[in-house]
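[job 4471] stage=fold_predict status=RUNNING
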Amino acid sequence: MRSLLSTSFTLLLMVLIFPTMAPGQTEQQSSGYFAMGAMSGEVTADSVLLQTRLAAIPGPETGTDGDVPGKRGQLYFEVSPDRELKEPLTTGRYLAEASSDFIVRAKISGLQPNTRYYYRAVLVDGSGDLQHGKTCQFRTLPPIDSTEPIHFCMGSCMNYHSFMTGKANGGGPVTATDEDKQLGYPAFAAMNALSPDFFIGTGDIVYYDHPAKTAATTLPELRRKWHEQFRFPRLVTFFSNTPAYWSKDDHDFRFNDADLSGRKSPDAATGIDLFREQVPILPADDTTSPTYRTHRVNKYLQLWFVEGRDYRSSNREPDGPDKTIWGEDQLNWLRQTLKQSDARWKIIVTPTPMVGPDRASKKDNHTNPGGFRHEGTAFLNWVQQELDGPVFTFCGDRHWQYHSIHPSGVEEFCCGALNDENSIRGTRPGDKGSTDPDAEIRQPYIYDEPTGGFLHVLVTTRDDGVGELTIEHRNDQGQILNSVVRRTTDQH
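[job 4471] inference complete, writing structure tokens
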């Protein structure tokens, strides 16, 4: 099947894959395990990042200390459009070692658009024997002028502590069974049944500061939060089938509502570096490129992923024109790329809300008076004045599902929390103590009762050539709670 891969893939693979092992170097070690499976990230029409972590135990159970310890070893990846991985192309060899939390990541370029690829990690033991990991898959994005159907899921706020202990984090239902606590969050089984083209994790993937009495502050403690989360079989299965795009928020950065200031551990630099280490957003050796980026998905859709923690002013500063979540460079980039895009539907994936409403007591996001409302309102007004066509914001952070419409016309869809135990009832327009006491925001949907769940988004083309964008709120069992359809024939 080697001929099914383009010549450019062969050439770029040799250029872009940097083996960590020196020529002739071997790593004497016993067999390790792929306890957390493998995952793909940042898939484009011609590239992808592949990642795995070598573990000392098989999983899914943790060790006696509640962790999944890593193991040093020599690895490489095999990649092919053939499901059986016959005659695959292989990357150079990498060394999984403690300095990178035993994570290995490879960038593969030169792929064909709209093509399903299969891959697996391969462990080379001290005697040269090979141990093959599970065969995983991803599909590259179609060309930018394609009307090929695309669908994806988006989720946020996975609270491991509330899930495992059965202690609700805000009054939501407690539903996790003993079996769930072995397998992981039910939402991942529901999403896997949909076979989405990709997943968006929009922050709070782990909670460093939960539970508060044993909040993670040291590097081993912080890393353990990722290990315990991603060893669940439902997550291993889902991410073996589904590439992902990741954003961080406060809890997987430092702690609740964290900014860059203060000496409280973990410090900001550690939070930034560790997120880059744990999820495939950038190549492993790229420590400088910003994590804000945009991806054109097809003819109709373009996604923007904004960074909400790396550049923000102190939350405590008075709100005004100089206070920012995004920073000048990111804001300029966002405006420029939005204006350059001819995509019918522009979706800004933001870890925190821009429309809400939210609780007025907070000072963490773009909806909050005394927070960053000046920047948020100015940007939404700019969208109304400068851009032609609908712009949506998709957010996490708030633990309830809703669809709201700002007076500027920008529509916001919140995915809520992935697990029931982390869901709450939510804030409505007109609520006292909200960011919208005068009910200026229209809210076509907010769920009736707290539930975990996710967004499911479909971009399709009807037989008559009309494009459709369908946005569904689903609960953690996959049931549709709300559905909104927008068409290319809609006036705007």
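[job 4471] summary: Residues 291 and 307 are 6 Å apart (CA to CA).
[job 4471] exit 0
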